[in-house]
Each structure stands twice: as structure tokens, then as C-alpha cells.
Amino acid sequence: DIQMTQSPSTLSASVGDRVTITCRASQNINSWLAWYQHKPGKVPKLLIFKASSLENGVPSRFSGSGSGTEFTLTISSLQPDDFATYFCQQYDSHSPTFGQGTKVEIK
Amino acid sequence: QVQLVQSGGEVKKPGASVKVSCKASGYTFNSYGISWVRQAPGQGLEWMGWVSANNGHTNLAQNFQGRVAMTTDTSTNTVYMELRGLRSDDTAVYYCARLRLRWNYGWTADSSDVWGQGAMVAVSS
Q1: Nearest 5°: CA angle at A72, between A67 and A76?
Q2: CA pair distance B101, B83, nearest whole angstrom
Q3: B48 CA to chain A: closest CA distance, Å?
Q4: Cβ–Cβ gap A44/B95 under 8 Å
Q5: A60-91: per-residue pLDDT in tens?
Q6: Average pLDDT over every residue of B1-9
Q7: Distance between CA A69 and CA A21 in Å, rounded?
Q8: Residue B29 DSSP one-character state
């Protein structure tokens, strides 16, 4: 299976901060990567697909970039609603895999 | 609107089986797949596999092969996930999600864009 490694595991930030989360794949996954936001007691929400395509209805402060093995999710100006855990997921292989998650906490 | 509604939580004993349902509405059922993802307490998301709503073809994660079955009922737009031989480490919230498909020498999984509310399965003696 392709291993996905996210960093950092936890991130403390303030409202208005620019936040960047990194996801590395153990092999080339082209641009077949999604980012999800997950809050406790809620269902995961698709933010970004195909590495950089913004899902309908997702605020434009979220953006994704990268290809091959290294990817980033950026929140340009962190809002109170953005404190959550973020997961990357590769779907290049026939067995998609998730990163371990990055928890964005209030500083 | 597009919606996936899952069955309720269950408590099972080790060795038993559990069958979770996922009823889809608001879209053309056979144009997508359904993926299953679980999250154990304090852990991350784990991909279990997916099933084609069009033809019932499944693609299961290696960790679950031989222990999980995913089936569809196109008459009710419902998908089922059955996990057998339950262990304590199967305790988790089980999510279904609408799976976009892409063509890559056959239909293959893309991203999951609409999720069910989750079903808690607790395994305890």
C-alpha cells in the first residue's frame, strides 16, 4: 500500500494565520490526492480533489498544491470554523489510503 | 439534496457479524460508487473498500479481504457492508460515502464527496 505521511501532527494557530499542512506519499501518485476536514461528531468534508481543485461550496481560503509525492493544503486566513483535523487521501492506487491527520488547534 | 443515511449503532460480541446499511437519495445511484471508511476511537480514517452501484463489483482493502462483504440493492438504492469475525479492535464509527469514479483501464476510485452520518459499532464481550 502507498503510505501517506502528514506533517505536522498537531498545529497551533490563531484566527487570521496562514496555515500550511504537508502530505508526502511513499511513491508517485501524480495528482490523485484529496483533502478532507473532519470535526468531532461531524462527518468528513471534502475540501480539495485532484490535488488542487476546490470542491463546490468550499471557501476560497482553502487551496491545495503539489504533484508526484509532495502536497500541501493551505488555509490563507484561518477562521474559527476551521479548527478541525485535516486528512489527505491518495487515490492513485486501487487501494486508497489516508494520512494520519493534522489537528489544527487554537493557539 | 444528495443524502446518505446509515443504519444505527450496534453493540456486538467478539466473533459476531455486523451489517451496516447506507441508503442513498438525491442523485443517480448507479453513476457513482459507495466507499466505506472507518475511524476507531482516537485514530485516523481507514479505507475499507468500495462497491460499484452499477454492477456490484467490489474492491476491498487487503486488511479486510475475506472478512468484509459489500453489496448493493438497486431497487432501494441501498448499500450494505457486512463485517464478520468481529474483534475488539473493530470498534469504530463506520462511514459510507458517495464515491466519484474515474476511468483508468477500468473504473477506479476517485474522491468521496458526500458522507453518511456514520454508524458506531462497538465490539465487547
Answers
A1: 135
A2: 24
A3: 9
A4: yes
A5: 999 999 999 999 999 999 999 999 999 999 99
A6: 96
A7: 14
A8: G
Question: Of the candidates A98, A66, A70, which has an alpha carbon nearest to the alpha carbon of residue B112?
Answer: A98
What SS3 string covers chain A? CCCEEEECCEEEECCCCCEEEEEEECCCCCCCEEEEEECCCCCCEEEEECCCEECCCCCCCEEEEEECCEEEEEECCCCHHHCCEEEEEECCCCCCEECCCEEEEEC
- Which among B45, B116, B117 has the least Cβ separation from residue A87? B45
Instruction: Give the Cα-Cα-Cα angle A81, B111, A43 (nearest 5 degrees).
Output: 40
Number of Cβ within 10 Å of residue A95's Cβ equals 17
- How many other C-beta atoms lie within 10 A of the C-beta of residue A78? 20
pLDDT digits 0-9 by tens, B63-85: 999 999 999 999 999 999 999 99
Which chain B residues in 84-123 lie under 8 Å from chain A, judged by CB atoms?
95, 97, 100, 108-113, 115-118
**Which of B6, B45, B57 to probe by mutation at the A interface, max A CB count within 10 Å?**
B45
Distance CA B107, CA B50 (A): 11
Amino acid at A1: D
